[in-house]
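FIELD: query
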Amino acid sequence: MNAVCKAHLQTLSYSRKLVATRMKRETTKFDKLSNFSCNEVLLKLPSSQTSLLSRLIAPSAGLTRNIHVLTDVDVYDISSNEIRRIAKSRFGGFQEGFTCVAVNCPSCNHPLSTAAKNASNDLGKLHINLRTGYSFCTQCFLCGPWSSFAKYIQALDVYNLIKPEKAASCPPSIAQHLSHYTDTATSMTEANEMRRLWNSAQPIQSLSEETLVPFLDKLNLGDLSMDTLKKMVAKINVDLHQLILPCLTSRDAEFRSVKILTPNDKESEANESDARAEMEDYGIEEKNLPKHQPWLLGYHLAKGKDEVILTATAADTLTALDCLAVPAVCLPSGISNLPLSTMAFLESFRKITLWLGHGVQGTESARAFARKLGEKRCHLIRSSEETPSALQCRMKGRNVAQVLKAALPMTHKSVTTFSSLRKEVYEEITQSSKVSGVRWRRFPILTDLLKGHRRGELTVFTGPTGAGKTTFLSEYSLDLCGQDVRTLWGSFEIRNVRLAKMMLQQFSGLLLENETRETFDIVADKFEKLPMYYLAFHGQQNVISVLEAMSHAVYVHDISHVIIDNLQFMMGTSNENSSLDRYHRQDQIIGSFRRFATDNNVHVTLVIHPRKEAMEELSTSSIFGGAKASQEADNILILQDKRTNDPNHRRKYLEVSKNRYAGDLGIMPLEFHKESLSFAPRKKNATSGSTNKVVNAYWQPGRAQ
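FIELD: result
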């Protein structure tokens, strides 16, 4: 991967402090800073100005918060062959895996380490991801990006040159460069709560059958055997309200996190079109403590085996363990994403069956995970009415073992047969509402036209300059991101700070400039939980660099929606294509994004400016360039901006001029609300106000009635 990708991915953590300061301080203080990116300011300004900048950006000590910082996006120009060469020359050999190479962990094997003194035979293995260089030890939990690992290699080489006679007996410690995986400061409260909850709970075997069975019935787990619960070292809290399951890395290890299962007595308010209704397993609420962690529930029972079943919920894992001879583990984040640290634990399994449930979204996530884990060793149980999740199968009286036998291997993406497509064809006919994708909550008319947001498609979006394309796309993507559609924003026209500020205002429905810092923190805390990522590109960029950064984000963060605003910023930057005319170059770029969407099963929304023509109303032929854009696109959306007799008022509407999936064309009227920067129809009772209103109005503005 090209070195130009380095540090081009950011989360809201990057821009949060800048956004807060922008909204509260005078604009003139930031005019001089607007020409620099955050990294450029910190690197290039003199120390005196840097300290001034830190005072402007940082809130007061009482308001300072620890913000989650992404650590696995540090991409360097390192090939898999180079990683193998270094592993062989520095560690005397390696074990080739499906996604990693494993070497003896320098921390576990260090002469001064406690693990090395007490170990009898097998010490930890440091797994180095062949694509990103990210390292993780499955025993001492040492981890870090390739940049940190490379610094350790340099220190090792220097030490060997200076003190060759002592190199074997006391090499430098790798822990000075990598770090042991620990809970971050923001999750220490969760870690303390986990310990308190675990210590106050009672073991499952201490309860009588008369007490235990009614509680398990509330979780729809009444058929579980006591033996399965004992193997999982399950506990129940004192008031018999929660089932607590520890995540263990081995049978005698200390637990690192817990999964908490609580009966959900409230009926879901989500209707059938709501994607979240598909995420619920018959009234069971699951919670992780700490929330962000890489540990696999049930791994201590699967360790050392050749085959494993991956599930998305703890209830499915318990059901599979109770019904099947094959061990099962639960992913730490469900169908949301597969962390690189978790992949190290799965490296030893020769066969992985993905049984994630959750309908179409679960199947799409399973395919994305299979590409990361290696398709040759992965099998898939497609979620459908006939083969739902393991828990649902048992509740419906189906044979769970027979469903497992129906798992199909992940075949080559370019070769298929009708037999492998038969179930999908049947679902296209009978379950069109579920197959059509994630539905917009803020734009119900758009859902009626496009039927939903689907992976693997290319949407071309156009409209006049200044009509509000970026503003609309911000809300359009925010709606989907709030439904766990992991989104990557590539804004080359406006900086990420301004984009994040606009999203915060749309997210809250409030004019945040008039609100207190407490209100801002509440809104920002909720917004940070969304799976939203940003590319740090700005201005003219090379399309190859952009595609490499996108590819990295899809692999590491399981991105399913990419927005590029806009295509014109990637034209005219490649010297090797200087002989090509502008239209030909644009066709090549569009073809690259089309292939990216198909190969990675990711939805790409691409903004293209219209031709500079005096036209009252735009059409498909108004898109700048040749016919490639309209031919390759699955959807074409046009933001129309028509003048009226009143010069202060314009009539805006979104026109769907191409819809390859459903074929429905039409328009969606738009009314812009300046206070919330929103195009969505307002709720009748949506008002801005106090902090409590912000909390309760979370995502309420713009929801379909």
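FIELD: remark
The longest helix spans residues 582-600.
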